[in-house]
Amino acid sequence: MDYLDFEEPIIKLENRIEELRERSQSDGKDFLPEIRKLRQKANRLRRDIFGKLSPWQRTKLARHPMRPYTKDYIDNMTSGFMELHGDRFYGDGVSIISGFANLDGHVVMVIGQQKGRDTKEKIKRNFGMSHPEGYRKALRLMKMAEKFNRPILTLLDTPGAYPGVGAEERGQSEAIAKNLLVMSSLRVPIISVVIGEGGSGGALALGVGDRILMLENSVYSVISPEGCAAILWNNPEKVEEAASALRLTAMDLFSHGLVDEVVKEPSGGAHRKPITTASTLRRVIRRHLNELMKISSDDLVSTRRNKIRNMGYFYE
Amino acid sequence: MGWFTKVKKPLESIAFKKRIPEGVWCKCKGCKEIIYHNELVESFGICPKCSHHHRISASERIRLLIDDATFEEKDANVTSADPLKFRDTKKYKERLGSAQKKTGLSEGVISGSGLLESRQVEIAVMEFDFMGGSMGSAVGEKITRTIERGVEGEKPVILVSCSGGARMQEGLLSLMQMAKTSAALGVLAEKKLPYLSILSDPVSGGVTASFAMLGDVIISEPNALICFAGPRVIAQTIGETLPEGFQRAEFLLDHGFVDMVVPRLQLKLTVAQLLDFFCGEVAY
Fold first, then answer.
1. Whether residue A38 is found in the same domain as residue A66
2. What does pTM read for this prediction?
């Protein structure tokens, strides 16, 4: 299924419009007034539905099967992308795509999690859940970017780091921990964008940036609503409550000061207009890059460290 | 007076509270033999029959590692807020309240300065009985400050982990504590100051995937469960039961992720010796 339950009424209207258009061509009959009316209705409906999405609906949107993935953003935002492979220890870590590309006059190291569109690719990419190899490849390439003084762009979209026997044997925790430490001290600009699902430590392992951005319908959380419902409610059906309680939407996180900017998506979500979304995001990234490229490496690192240092609410 | 300014009981009096069942006799969790309760307390939770290491409280752990009467607690007044107004089947605030009552602590970690075999150290010890030793903003802050005191005072840092991971009730804020503590360790490393990570059963999730795995030397207690994803989650994912000993300290030693597995009673001397290797006086 390529659409979500709450998208259904809109999709039905759109199919009806398409049908009428085809009929007006084949029958020579004029359905234009009716089409116009239906279009207005569809727009109204879209505004209504998407104007008041619940956190759980937004989570579904963030995981939408048609949502643009890292590869789509690389294709639509950058040129001359050259993929670089391997962690030089064990494997390639194909849930993460990485390499140099041009973005509006900057050479950037792009590193992002890729979920996979069709069944075959989903399996190849392990549904975007990285093994340690992926994080170690990312680390190698981030250090390389630092060596050649190139900024880093990371795109976060993962259900989480892979929970498996091999991943544990090869040090999933160590791989994530090392990335957090090294990213906090890299001497080149880092921009991190949550484009879909920011799944806990698996996302954070690429997410220690000078700027942390989120697409409007992306989510970022310490645990999935499913996991949270199972543990804290002891009832897997409480996902809606868990999604609300976790405050995982872009606007919620922005209001808590954990995210620097929320990037607007087209009405109906990024998957409705992937190219428009990509060009909006490109412009936002360029603006931040232009700012960050002017800052000295020392200031960059100390500002980034301060930013991370100040995250948290507590009494004293 | 608000609950968060509650005066703490002195450390000694709360040692072992609830950890080992009340009564004269209790059952070892390892060999299931009946042991004399006082004997278990005397031996820091180690079964005299099978050497099984029972979980001990943070204050007991400090008594184990830090020279008598030299521990000076810091940041005891740093406590959790409830920024998300989180509520599952219970309010987060209520859960905090009962954890405080249960442990006599204000948060899930005790931190401070002290002497270890006469060597000055900064130390933080996690308390598993405080909401599963989970790391929220306050725990992250106290651990970060421990590391920062190490940087400022040019002292070694020792962190003893015992935690189920990030504290869900603080949402993404708790996830960010992973980055915060790891970033502070980056500064400590730049100053070439040692960090020893001690792992006690269990260490999992966001704590393993941040400071616990970043020690210059990582020491685990025998048989401690150390993992990113818990065995139950993995068993569910792969749909099989897991091999005996999977994700235990010895398994991590075999796979190259801890430096050594050290029995509890030898921890203090091992750490002291390591500190000398790192920064003791060298006679040429």
1. no
2. 0.93
- Contact: A180, B179; criterion CB under 8 Å: yes
Helices (H), ranges, chain B: 11-14, 37-42, 58-65, 92-103, 137-153, 171-190, 205-208, 231-238, 249-254, 267-279
The total number of residues written for chain B in this structure: 284
Nearest chain A alpha carbon to B235: A164
Number of domains in chain A: 2
At residue A162's C-alpha, the angle toward residues A156 and A163, to 5°, is 145
Domain assignment of residue A316, yes or no: no
Shared domain for A233 and A292, answered yes or no, is yes
The domain segmentation of chain B, as residue ranges, is: 17-54, 55-279
Q: Do A265 and A280 have their domain in common?
A: yes
Could you please state the CATH topology (level 3) that the domain comprising B55-279 is classified under. 2-enoyl-CoA Hydratase; Chain A, domain 1 (3.90.226)
Residue A3 — pLDDT band, cuts 50, 70, 90? Answer: confident
- Claim to verify: residue A140 and residue A261 sit in the same structural domain: yes
Question: Would you tell me which residues 193-252 of chain A have a C-beta closer than 8 angstroms to some C-beta of chain B?
Answer: 200-201, 204-205, 207-208, 220-223, 228, 231-234, 238, 241-242, 245-248
A77 phi, psi to nearest 5 deg: -110, -25
Q: What is the domain range of residue A298?
A: 58-309
Cα–Cα distance, A174 to B228 (Å, whole number): 9
Q: What is the pLDDT of residues A124-148, one digit of tens each?
A: 999 999 999 999 999 999 999 999 9
Dihedral, CA atoms, A77, A152, A216, A239, nearest 10 degrees? 120
CATH number of residue A224's parent domain:
3.90.226.10
Cα separation, B262 vs B200, in Å, equals 10
Average pLDDT, chain A: 95
ipTM of model = 0.95
The reply to whether A106 and A140 lie within a common domain is yes
In a mutational test of the B interface, the residue from A136, A180, A218 whose CB has the highest number of chain B CBs within 10 Å is A180
pLDDT tens sequence across A27-62: 777 788 888 898 899 889 888 899 889 999 999 999
Identify whether residues A246 and A109 lie together within a single domain.
yes
Evaluate whether residue A314 is within a structural domain.
Answer: no
Scanning chain A, the segments in alpha helix (DSSP H) are: 8-27, 32-51, 55-62, 70-77, 119-124, 132-147, 165-169, 172-185, 200-204, 225-228, 239-246, 250-255, 274-292, 297-309
Cross-chain Cβ contact B86/A245 below 8 Å: yes
